[in-house]
Amino acid sequence: RLAPSPSLLERIRVARGFTAYQGFSLVERLCASFPPTASFVVVPWVDALYREGDISDAESAQMLGTVAQRLEVLAETHEVPVLVTRREADELTHPFDACASRTISCQATRFGPRFVGEGFETLVYKDGQAVQTTLAFWAHVLDHRQAMHTDVSTPGVV
């Protein structure tokens, strides 16, 4: 529904595991045969399968640590961004904190999800009917407006 063209979706490859072992195996296979035309990798809720209780906590931690290492090597080797989301931020997902080059947190608000990270913050919320802005949005607008008026080298030209 969101793609501007159905042909765009033809380039997307999706794989899904239903157990921790299947998820682990998918990452192993991805790293072993990474497609040369791939632009990026997305691994949503990377920790979810390792929290299901079908394997021990120690094995979960070891497997998820290996997944973090493999994805980090994949990103560096193929110079491709890897986006990882996690269900929880705790000791189990700590290996991802150690190898992440950038972290964005998400908080639920009554206006929708709020994303915050270094140099990034949700400033506008759209719900289809209206737009809700934040004070930070207006501070950003006013900063740029002020810069626009003070950086003019030719008087009278804006």
What is this entry, summarized?
By secondary structure, this protein is of the alpha+beta class. It has helices spanning 6-9, 20-32, 57-78, 94-99, 135-150, and strands spanning 41-43, 82-84, 104-109, 112-117, 120-121, 124-126, 131-133.
Q: Any overview of this molecule?
A:
This protein has about 160 residues and is of the alpha+beta class. Helices cover about 40% and strands about 15% of the residues. A three-stranded antiparallel beta sheet has the order 3-4-5, with no helix packed on it. A two-stranded parallel ribbon has the order 1-2. Strands 6-7 form a two-stranded antiparallel ribbon. A hairpin with a 2-residue loop joins strand 3 (about 105-110) and strand 4. The chain is globular. The chain starts with 5 loop residues before the first helix and ends in an 8-residue tail after the last helix. The relative contact order is 0.09.
Secondary-structure topology with pairs:
Blueprint: H1 6-9, H2 20-32, E1 41-43, H3 57-78, E2 82-84, H4 94-99, E3 104-109, E4 112-117, E5 120-121, E6 124-126, E7 131-133, H5 135-150
Parallel strand pairs: 1-2
Antiparallel strand pairs: 3-4, 4-5, 6-7
Helix pairs in contact: 2-3
